[in-house]
Amino acid sequence: MFDSPSAPHYFTPDHDAFRDALRDFVSREITPHAAAWDEAETFPRELYKKAAELGILGVGYPEEYGGTPADIFYHLIVSEEMGRCGVGGVAASLLSHTIGLPPVAAHGSAEMKQRVIPPVLRGEKIAALAVTEPSGGSDVAALKTTAVRDGDHYVVNGEKVFITSGMRADYFTVAVRTDPNSKGPAGISALLLEGDMPGISRTKLDKMGWWASDTAHLRFENVRVPVANLIGTENAGFKVFMNNFNSERLGMSAQACVYAQVCLEEALDWARQRKTFGMSLSERQVIRHKLMDMYARIDAARSLIYDLSWRLHHKVGDPGQLVARTCMAKVLSTQAMQYCADQAVQILGGMGFMRGTRSERIYREVKVMMIGGGSEEIMKDLGARQLGI
């Protein structure tokens, strides 16, 4: 069956060994429980510690904090293999630190890094990113949450919405406006808020998909945050979040390809077994063509992702063009996911409409992948500007 290609020019034997171990972990610890966790709208917190023991949570972080230095292809493997269970909500929350923690690792003080990173990588604490607001999503420069300096504290007021791991998180990397006179990116800063700080309230949000992931609406009412919790430089946080988004988008692209592949596998298996009028569905040309179209879209998106990753790893290419290609990768891969989910449900027929099939679940989760991390429209516009179109 079609699988992630064995590509020695991208993946070394060490990469392959890590992939095998991670695939075994997912098939043993996650996939058998996937449907039940989705229905329960949660998964056990001890899964974080199990993932930490395998080294999944520490990929790419320095050894001094309990991590394992790794190149971009290890990150791709994590995204791909975590998607194999076909439950986006588990991957989203289990790996929320991959978007919440990088700003701390890259721009936090030595004290902050030592205090925050190790317990997250051990699976004892949960980190999340809090940028999106009710009044605007992708337009980060227009955020309204304020942080006003008061002695050795900032006083934070505002709201964040659609926050992955928002109900469970112990640490929030929050985008705030520290310059009230600036209405654009120049006045934005990054702050670390701890979940038990007085003035933080959380409301659970119900969603179309990603049921197993807790998603929250956060409210900050006069939250006093020590100045030492500033991540990087005051009023220079916009670039921190933009760089973070590029990494997030690449990971989402790789994961979207796997979700598309899961749909293809389920559809092919069903088409081979299901007989109508004396023939299996897979013997019918119209079905074979659907399956080939699915195959082609997955292969095209994955080829772009791997080539882009190689260029990023080797620092080959104009930075603006690499950003544009990242945008294209997210659009192409999530469109492949959308197409494959739709076609798989169609091929499965009535079974595709039933809860419990992987394709039905992924069908519900398509839109969060096309919107989260930067909507398709934003990606196309950002890419166009980078290419001078």
Summarize the structure.
This protein is of the alpha+beta class. It has helices at residues 13-30, 34-40, 46-54, 72-82, 88-94, 97-100, 102-107, 110-121, 238-273, 285-314, 319-348, 358-371, 376-386; strands at 127-130, 146-150, 153-164, 171-177, 188-194, 200-204, 215-226, 230-231, 275-276, 279-280. The longest helix is centred in the middle third of the chain and has 36 residues, at 238-273.
Task: Enumerate how many helices there are, as a single number.
Answer: 13
Helix-and-strand structural type: alpha+beta
What proportion strand?
5-15%
Strand order of the largest sheet: 1-4-5-8
Distance between the termini: 40 Å
Query: What share of residues is helical?
Result: 40-55%
Number of strands: 10
- Rg over CA atoms: 21 Å
| Average pLDDT over all residues | 94
**What is the makeup of the main sheet?**
4 strands, mixed
